[in-house]
Amino acid sequence: MLNLENHYNLKGMVAIVTGAAAGIGKASALILAKAGANIVCADLNKVDADNTAIEARGEGVKAIGVKCDVTSKEDLENLVKATLEEFGKINILVNVAGGGGGGHENFLELTPEYINKIYNLNVFSIFNLSRLCAPHMIASEYGSIINISSMASLMQSHNMSVYGSSKAAVNQLTKYMAVDLGPIIRVNGIAPGAIKTHALETVLTPELENVMLKKTPLKVLGEADDIAMAVFFFASPLSKWVSGQILAVNGGGEQDLEN
Question: What is its EC number (predicted)?
Fold first, then answer.
């Protein structure tokens, strides 16, 4: 008979979460801690990463904060080194850190510097950190990599060409990683819709929210915890036969922000 408790239990696992200072990253770190995993909270904002680690330790697990610029090869190497020194292994990697979008990318004004910046942040950081973590997952005989994409990867919208295409690259990278890293490591992605994070709240107006809700069958914007629950599914043995998938968590709509 299937033992559900074992499938929910991450006790003894070690998870690295990037972008863990706030929003989806913080929510993901805390839900994995609730499930029993030890947590490494990585973020440029060391103070808030440490605060997330403190909250995680409140769940009875071990947790540390690590300052990390995911576009820096040296920082990524230091992140993995700090994880191994503290916990001795790596089982779960949640690639949350990213940026760009917001409908501000005028195609005719884009610069090579901006394009490189967004691809380094959204795509190459995932590639580089996953390559560093994968051998340790294989050694521990349990690995799950979860890449946070975006609904912008699956739709078309004005002034989103660089961000949207970078997240589409994340989707395809996820699928190829799943092929290359199986059978021990599962690799999946999550494409969030409109989530009420601090970043969204800085630009959210009642008018914009109404546009989003019109395109959302469930008639409510998402919360960071909604994405974290999907992260937990992919991180845990609940999804032991799921790999190479991109899960849209979006209230049933595309939220393309078009009128």
Answer: 1.1.1.47
Token representation of residue 135: 């051998």
In angstroms and rounded to an integer, the radius of gyration of the C-alpha atoms of the chain is: 18
CA nearest to 125, candidates 161, 73, 160:
73
Could you report the per-residue pLDDT of 11-23, keeping only the tens digit for each?
A: 999 999 999 999 9
* Residues written for the chain: 259
pLDDT of residue 134: 98
Beta bridge partners of 93: 16, 145
Decide if 235 contacts 10 (C-beta within 8 A).
Answer: yes
Is residue 163 part of the annotated active site? The answer reads yes
Question: Among residues 8, 114, 119, 163, which one is catalytic?
Answer: 163
Report pLDDT for 155. 86
In the predicted structure, residue 40 carries a pLDDT above the cut 50: yes
CATH class of 4-249: alpha beta
